[in-house]
Amino acid sequence: MDWERTPPAVQEYIQSLHQQMKQRQQPVDTLHGRVTQTSQTSSKPPASDSPFDKPKRPRRQSSGKRGGHKGPPGKGPTWLTPTEVHLIEPGPCACGHGELVSLAPYDTHQVIELPAIAMDIQPFILHQGTCRGCGRTRKAQRPREHPAGYGPRLPALIGERAGMHRTSRRLGQDFCHSVLNLPMSLGAVQKSIDRVSHALGPHYEAMATLARHATVGSIDETPWYCHHALHWLWTLRTAPVSLSLMHPHRSQEAFAALIEDGQGIVVSDGDGVYQGWVQHRQTCLAHRIRTARGLAEKSDPHLAACGQWALTALQT
Questions:
Q1: Which run of H or E residues covers position 252?
Q2: Element spanning 92, H or E
Q3: pLDDT tens per residue across span 15-34
Q4: Which of 76, 95, 126, 252 is most deeply packed, by most CB within 10 A?
Q5: How does strand 265-268 pair with strand 281-283?
Q6: Number of neighbouring beta carbons within 10 Å of residue 295
Q7: 119, 181 contact by CB (below 8 A)
Q8: What is the pLDDT of residue 72?
Q9: Cα–Cα distance measured from residue 12 to residue 48, given in angstroms and rounded to the nearest whole number
Q10: CB 25 within 8 A of CB 15
């Protein structure tokens, strides 16, 4: 009745204000959704979550005693193939009336230790001589199995630390000096890494062939700094192997360089780079679940209900 008694001009004005509020509320909701996004409701990495907003894990009931508890048997140490076995017998009994009989092992104490690190240094002294017949000088050549000044195991260790553990060349040099007691220049460290990279080339190509011809492969990319410049680390994970590729761009060109002639099903997020894949593509369910969880936390009850329904369906 109050609304019917309101003059038409006032009604029109109120309705226009209401429409303006709805139009302005939409960008506010969009910005609020971006601010409140976490790794559980979007594709943001877990490291971007605020440490103050992380959910607390429920504390397990403690018996109050430290150490092992009764229940399932523990894993214990891994028993390795021994290089040397020591048999230890007990000393004579304090009573002094006789020798021990029925000796049998009752426990094994395994000790694991690094062998003493001593570099195996083998100088190859190359000789030369003059032929009595023609007077030509003949020189001995380096052995084919030792073309460089370092054997294969030492560059493999340096390459492992630089590649898998991402240690710098300077730290690799310090490791050789402090642990191996081997002075090496930064140039020698780099040459060792280059040697390992060259040796891994054929194996990388074989892995690439397996990955690109797999039936299903999950693909993703992440920022990666290389020589202080932003690059992108692309990874194609399949059942037999995982293939990685460093590329300066996040583009169709980089995706094509990784996938090449692949024909299998690509599992990826919804990024536009993958939308042009002409073969079969499956959207990653983990991304769908995070999107549904984000909708379920919306203030709009209709969106929240839709998100909760999708979240239940995806997690079933």
A1: helix 252-259
A2: none
A3: 888 888 888 887 877 777 77
A4: 252
A5: parallel
A6: 20
A7: yes
A8: 65
A9: 47
A10: no
